[in-house]
Amino acid sequence: MGVERVQEIANFSKETIPEEFIRTTYEQPALTTVQGTVLEVPVIDLSDPDEEKVVRAIVDASSNWGMFQVVNHGIPHETVRKLKEVGKAFFELQPHEKEAYAKSPGSQSIEGYGTKLQREVEGKKAWVDHLFHKIWPPSEINYQFWPKNPPSYRKNNEEYAKHMHGVVDKLFRCLSLGLGLEGNEMKEAMGGDNMVYLLKINYYPQCPRPDLALGVPAHTDMSAITILVPNDVQGLQACKDDHWYDVEYIPNALIVHIGDQVEIVSNGKYKSVLHRAKVNKEKTRISWPVFVEPPSDLEVGPHPKLVNEANPPKFKSKKYSQYCFCKLNKTPK
Ligand code: OGA
Ligand code: NI
């Protein structure tokens, strides 16, 4: 098909990397990361019976960072381990086996195995390959994009999707209460039980020049929230007050990103986090974000209970599909 996978490029790149992967000095991680800092993305214990305390912690983190990690989240560690095991196994298959799931170039859908996501400024490339497919609700799933190999891929992904509902509900409830809304109102504004869970696997091969390249350039997620599990190779960075900070790897934690849709519904009280991913010289990094999204035809805008004459809406209401189209094609909002 002629698309070059970064995994293949990495096999030939022992000391240097092709020029199109070299970032400008404004982006190079070695030049733009705050070193040895004490500032850290908050870690929140979701099993704390003091719900008000959890709400306060989530409000703080979502307003100041737009990102936090959660521990004791209720998803069995074994379920997460099995999700990671089969995703890694897929990327370790021979190229022709992976290409069977390749996204077709003209396709409108984001699903499938692929290499390039955003159109990037100055034609720069990200050091990553990925696989996208929906995991919820069942009516939205296209199994043609789910690897048949390894054989337990489907079972393990279905199990993870099933266990996600508890965390998703808890997070939306806290985000909702934190705005002074009823517990269910934030979730309802995102489509309630019709919300879509879109899984992405990012596969960042080892890279001889992690100081010059990026796995994913700076962006905010379009989703409502994103729930990410990484492997044990640190690489995620969050931007706060114009500075880049490493997000610590905590075994068994989930990393929650506030996405653009929650920022919009909250009328700007919660911030969608600007983040990016570095790559590693010795190790392959892999991450499994799930983008929790409104259904594509749902109109999303600032919650009516949060706007009035003193607090006018800061965002236009838009169908989610329209929002994504505008952002990916960079047309003015
Ligand atoms: C993404 C993303 C970060 C990571 O895929 O949207 O931000 O840690 N990934 O892989
Ligand atoms: Ni992201």
TrEMBL record:
Gene3D superfamilies per UniProt: B-lactam Antibiotic, Isopenicillin N Synthase, Chain
InterPro entries, alphabetized: DIOX_N (IPR026992), IPNS-like_FE2OG_OXY (IPR044861), IPNS-like_sf (IPR027443), Oxoglu/Fe-dep_dioxygenase_dom (IPR005123), Plant_2OG-oxidoreductases (IPR050295)
GO molecular function: dioxygenase activity; L-ascorbic acid binding; metal ion binding
Essential cofactor(s): L-ascorbate
Position of the signal peptide: none
Pfam families with a match to the protein in the record: 2OG-FeII_Oxy, DIOX_N
Assigned keywords, A-Z: Dioxygenase, Flavonoid biosynthesis, Iron, Metal-binding, Oxidoreductase, Vitamin C
Gene Ontology terms describing biological process: flavonoid biosynthetic process; pigment biosynthetic process
Fe2OG dioxygenase domain location: 193-294
PANTHER family for the chain: OXOGLUTARATE/IRON-DEPENDENT DIOXYGENASE
Family: Belongs to the iron/ascorbate-dependent oxidoreductase family.
Name of this protein: Fe2OG dioxygenase domain-containing protein
Organism of derivation: Gossypium harknessii
